Amino acid sequence: METFHLNRQAYIKLCDLLKLQGWVDSGAAAKALIAQGDVKVDGKI
Q1: With 90 as the cut, is the pLDDT of residue 9 above it?
Q2: What pLDDT sits at residue 1?
Q3: Which residues pair with 41 in a beta bridge?
Q4: d(CA 28, CA 9)
Q5: Within 10 Å of residue 19's Cβ, how many Cβ atoms?
Q6: Taking residues 28-35, what's their average pLDDT?
Q7: CB 1 within 8 A of CB 16
Q8: Given 14, 30, 39, 41, which is the most exposed site by the fewest CB atoms within 10 A?
Q9: Does residue 30 contact residue 15 with C-beta atoms inside 8 Å?
Q10: How far apart are the first and last CA of the chain?
Q11: Rounded Cα–Cα distance for residues 26 and 11 (Å)
């Protein structure tokens, strides 16, 4: 698990967060991971 900080932003889209953190190469890859249930937020898929 990694911690990140939203600098001066109220929120960030999950797929954008995955890209910014370098966990995926593209938005399409991020969306695929999310759709497959490979990403959890607050312990929930």
Answers
A1: no
A2: 67
A3: 44
A4: 23
A5: 17
A6: 92
A7: no
A8: 41
A9: yes
A10: 14
A11: 19
Residue 10 has pLDDT above 70, yes or no: yes
- Name the residue among 44, 38, 7 with its Cα closest to residue 15: 38
DSSP assignment string, 1-45? ------SS-S---HHHHHHHTTS-SSHHHHHHHHHHT---BTTB-
Rounded Cα–Cα distance for residues 18 and 44 (Å): 16
One-letter amino acid at 43 equals G
Query: Which of 35, 45, 40, 44 has the alpha carbon at shortest distance from 2?
Result: 40
- HSE, side-chain direction, 13 A CA sphere, residue 30: 15
**pTM for this model (two decimals):** 0.70
